[in-house]
Amino acid sequence: MDEMLFFDTLRQGLWVAVITSTPILAAALISGVVVGLFQALTSIQEMTLTFVPKLLAIVAVFWVSMGFMSQTLTSYFTDTLIPMIAGM
């Protein structure tokens, strides 16, 4: 295997990982900032208040973007990795 092909495939794989994880990480970030702001404004320091909204936001975004994530991963495997393994 050529080094250029290896690094290009690695770059594409990392980009697919970034694209598929961005919605979930963005939801966790936004919900964390909102809950942190709410806690700072109300002086409520409850640990479950930070955990439960983040978990619910992550699950909701995962459920909504599951089709996009699976389609992205499937297209990466079928267009890039399977032909490389098969030697096409």
UniProtKB/TrEMBL annotation:
One of its GO terms (cellular component) is plasma membrane. It is a multi-pass membrane protein. GO terms for biological process: protein secretion. Pfam families: Bac_export_3. The chain crosses the membrane at residues 12-38, 50-69. InterPro entries: Bac_export_3. Belongs to the FliQ/MopD/SpaQ family. This is Flagellar biosynthesis protein FliQ.
